[in-house]
Amino acid sequence: MIRLWHVAQSRSFRVLWALEEIGAPYELIRCSFFDRSLRAPQHLARSPAGRVPALEDGATVLCESGAILAWLAETRAPHLRVAEGGEGRAAFLQGLHYAETLGAHLANLTQHHIVLREASMRSPTVMRLEAKRLENALRAVGPGWVAGHFSVADVALGYAVWVAQRFVSLPEGAAEYLAACEARPAFQRAMAKDGPPEIYLRDFYPPPEE
Ligand SMILES: N[C@@H](CCC(=O)N[C@@H](CS)C(=O)NCC(=O)O)C(=O)O
User: Fold this and answer.
1) Residue pLDDT, tens place only, 3-33
2) Atom of ligand 1 nearest to the CA of 53
3) Could you give the CA distance from residue 160 to residue 97 in angstroms, rounded to a whole number?
4) Which residues form ligand 1's pocket by a CB distance below 6 Å?
5) pTM of the entire structure?
C-alpha cells in the first residue's frame, strides 16, 4: 500500500497528481506546516528534514518529490516516463530537472512574499530579481508535453508553472501548457483532494514597486 504525507499546495501536490494519473490505490495523510506534525519523531524517521512529500511504498520510504515521481513511473506507470535509450529520453530528463530551476525561484519568492512576515525582513531587490528570472526561465516551457507525450516530467513542470502564476504573468507557451495540465482529469481530482490552501492565500503576489 502507498501512503503519502501531504500539505496542500506544497511540492507533495506533484506526488498526489502523479498518483491520480497512475490510478493506484493510496492513502493520503494530510499534514499542516502549523501544527508541528512534520517535526514529530515518526515523521522525521520518514523525512529527516521534516518536510513533505514523504511516501511509503511497502518497505520503501522516499522524501524527495522528483525521486518519488521517477520511482512511481518506474514501478507502476512506464507510460509516464521515457526509459533509458527511448525516444525523447533527453527531453524527459531535461524537463524533470528543469522543474528544479523554476523551483529555486519559486522557493525564494515564496519565502520573501509569504514566509517572511515582516517587511523589514524582505529584500525588494531580490523579490524583483527573482520574479524577472522566473519569468525568463518560463519562456522555455510549453506549449507541448516535454517528451512528446505526457510524463512525470510534466507533473514536475506543471506544478511549478501552477505556482509561478502567483508571482509573474505567464508567457504564452507556459500559459497554454498550464491550461493543458489543468484540463487533465487526474489534475482536477488531485486538486479536489488537495485540501484548504496552506501556502498561497492570494491569487497573485506582485513584485514590490521600485
Ligand atoms: N526538494 C524537496 C523539497 C521538499 C520541501 O522543501 N518541502 C516543503 C514544502 S514545499 C516543506 O515540507 N517545508 C516544510 C519545512 O521546511 O519545514 C522535494 O522536492 O521533495
Assistant:
1) 999 999 999 999 999 999 999 999 999 999 9
2) 20
3) 11
4) 10-11, 33, 38, 50-53, 64-66
5) 0.97
